[in-house]
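Notes to self, DUF2155 domain-containing protein:
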Amino acid sequence: MTWSFRCLPLVLALAAAGSAVFGPSARADRIASPVAEFAGLNKITARIFNFDVYMNETVQFGALQVTPRVCYKSGEGEEPKTDSFVEVDEITLDRKIRRIFSGWMFAESPGLNAVEHPVFDVWLKDCKAESNIPPPGTN
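result:
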């Protein structure tokens, strides 16, 4: 099948219809946040802990080190979407650091890309503009 300019009116009509349904842009604005909120489960004690981590900082949860690189949240009035690119390392018994997760976590689907470890689980809860914990480097 070859492309024909006779198809152009149909293509333009479909594009206009899509614009009317989805608005001027189908992609919602994403807001970068300086803090990611995580939940962590200790399977031995059956306790859940909530902890905040600033971007590019590392927090240790049990034998895991959690480092968020970016955290995005959808804008107001948009469908809630919260995601973060996270790296998780495990400190092994012989004190070596081993990367066990590097990827996107989604707060609306915590089971999709949560870190599942034999003792600890970690998942993203939210992206926040501020935290009760002072930022690194402040006293």
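- Residues 30-128 form one domain.
- The mean pLDDT is 83.
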